[in-house]
Write a structure and sequence with these properties.
- The protein has 262 residues and is of the alpha/beta class.
- It has a domain of 179 residues: P-loop containing nucleotide triphosphate hydrolases (Rossmann fold), CATH 3.40.50.300.
- The chain has a six-stranded mixed β-sheet, sandwiched between helices.
- Helix 4 packs antiparallel against helix 5.
- The longest helix has 19 residues.
- The radius of gyration is 18 Å and the shape is globular.
């Protein structure tokens, strides 16, 4: 049975409003019988209506931070809040419902359903949650991603950039509290990547949306309000609006320091 979609005003944050927060977040994996620490007590908060880029060398823990903060993976210890909800207190069923209704996801691989049309892919989260699509909101999303003439097409008929824009529209379908993006431009050419990043920037500035994006690209990170840099499972830099040049310098400096330790 369908529920009526909630009509919400643009999300412009109040003072001190926090979309996601982690406290002493730790994640330890087993690899070859040995423990590997992916996150080592990470404290982080992401304010509503902001765009944060998470960076770091391979194995630094950036994707693990995204996955645990988004409720895709359970931490070994520590806590995560989405708004006022602490995820560790939720059952698997409740956690699945939270991910469907309060969190949006955008991945490098798009993760679209090939048998569905563009429109069907966009409204899929609503259908899974039993929510009737708000046609005005759907029309705005389609206009925003620039695919009004592609709604009846299958993903295979679209370019990579168009598929990623469908994925962003799908992530926005439930008007989530936060959108997590894992290397959303990694498979795109430079111009198309810029278009996707401009779209993410616009949903923050115009809709008060919260975006947390893992990326390896300093240019992509320069679209963010803030850049967190991880190394060995810990935050080693927290830079507000640093620009691509400084981001590249900081990453190079970090790389030299790591090589020096080795």
């Amino acid at each position: 049975m369908w529920r009526t979609a909630e009509t919400r005003a643009p999300r412009h944050p109040g003072p001190g409003a926090v979309a996601v927060r982690t406290e002493q977040l730790t994640r330890v994996y087993r690899a070859g019988g040995q423990p590997v620490t992916a996150l080592a007590g990470v404290d982080a908060s992401f304010a509503r209506g902001t765009f944060t880029a998470v960076m770091g060398p391979s194995g630094s823990g950036k994707s693990t931070l995204l996955q645990t903060a988004a409720g895709l993976d359970r931490p070994t210890s520590g806590r995560v809040w989405v708004g006022a909800t602490e995820l560790s207190r939720l059952s698997e069923t409740a956690l699945t419902k939270l991910r469907r209704t309060r969190i949006g996801f955008v991945f490098q691989s798009f993760n679209l359903i090939g048998a569905l049309t563009v429109e069907e892919n966009i409204v899929l989260p609503l259908r899974l949650a039993g929510v009737r699509p708000d046609r005005d909101w759907l029309a705005e999303m389609v206009r925003r991603v620039g695919l009004g003439d592609r709604l009846r097409h299958r993903p295979s008929a679209l370019s990579g950039g168009q598929q990623q824009r469908v994925a962003i529209a799908r992530a926005l379908a439930m008007r989530p509290e936060v959108i997590f993006c894992d290397e959303p431009t990694g498979a795109l050419d430079t111009q198309t990547a810029a278009e996707v990043l401009t779209l993410l920037r616009a949903v923050v500035d115009e809709r008060g949306q919260t975006v947390v994006m893992v990326t390896h690209d300093p240019v992509a990170a320069s679209y963010a309000d803030r850049v967190l840099v991880l190394a060995d499972g810990a935050i080693v830099r927290d830079m507000p609006q640093p620009g691509a040049g400084r981001i590249a310098e900081e990453l190079a400096s970090l790389g030299r320091a790591v090589q020096g330790v080795r």
